[in-house]
Amino acid sequence: EVQLVESGGGLVQPGGSLRLSCAASGFTFSTYWMSWVRQAPGKGLEWVANIRQDGSEKYYVDSVRGRFTISRDNTKNSLYLQLNSLRAEDTAVYYCARAEMATTYYFYYMDVWGTGTTVTVSS
Amino acid sequence: SVLTQPPSVSEAPRQRVTISCSGSSSDIGNHAVNWYQQLPGKAPRLLIYYDNLLSSGVSDRFSASKSGTSASLAISVLQSEDEADYYCAAWDGSLSGYIFGTGTKVTVL
Asked: Which residues of B touch A115 (CB under 8 A)?
């Protein structure tokens, strides 16, 4: 069964840090782009970051660039998101998702999603 | 960049609804559109990819189209299980990032 399981969420004070993990199973992890998507309480979906199969390309939404770092370990079938300098507006459910990206970047979509892990930034 | 969707649509069971998604040349105009369904309290699910292709296991009551910088999702023979939030999305070449639409809540009357 294809599965993604996130972990690492929790309550953190503003300015603090967290590391989210996503464990993949049931597919060849090293052959897929991977993404993080978040959803603030009562709000819509927001793409956060993605990473190429070999980790050589990474993209971030402007609001997290310089504070968040996406990485992966293909030997452990795992995706990570390091969250630093956290702000109240980073409070959200964070989803890990498997992605397909065209070599020309014409298409990009996320076809497998985890159930999410909740990050709450509050003093 | 923002993909604009109507906040909500509603229709009676067995009817048809259409959700619009308006973008620009940097996103929909030059990249494929995808549609996601999010049932209450659940993770999103891919419905449509590459403008109009049904994802595996998705009912053929769902269909989608694209023209220029706009796209639309149609749900025919509406059922109570279709009550959910629906998001369009596309890669944005000018941002080098992925953008979601504002989301549309579908209510079955």
From this structure: 43
How many angstroms separate the Cα of B67 from the Cα of each of A6, A119, A120, B22?
A: 37, 38, 40, 10
Nearest to A80 by CA among A43, A44, A29: A29
Burial A35-53 (b: 16+ CB within 10 A, else e): bbbbbeeeeebbbbbbbeb
pLDDT of residue B33: 97
| Digit-coded pLDDT (tens) for B4-34 | 999 999 999 999 999 999 999 999 999 999 9
Distance (Å, whole) CA A36 – CA A47: 6
Segments of chain A scoring below 50 in pLDDT:
none
pLDDT one-digit tens code per residue, B52-82: 999 999 999 999 999 999 999 999 999 999 9
Contact B46 A111 (CB under 8 A): yes
CA-wise closest residue to A119 among A21, A23, A52: A21
Indicate the residue of B38, B50, B55 with minimum beta-carbon distance to A107. Answer: B50
Neighbouring-strand partners of residue B67: B70
CA A110-B86-B9 angle, 5° bins? 170
Which segments of A15-120 does DSSP mark as H helices, in order? none
Whether B1 has a pLDDT exceeding 80, the answer reads no
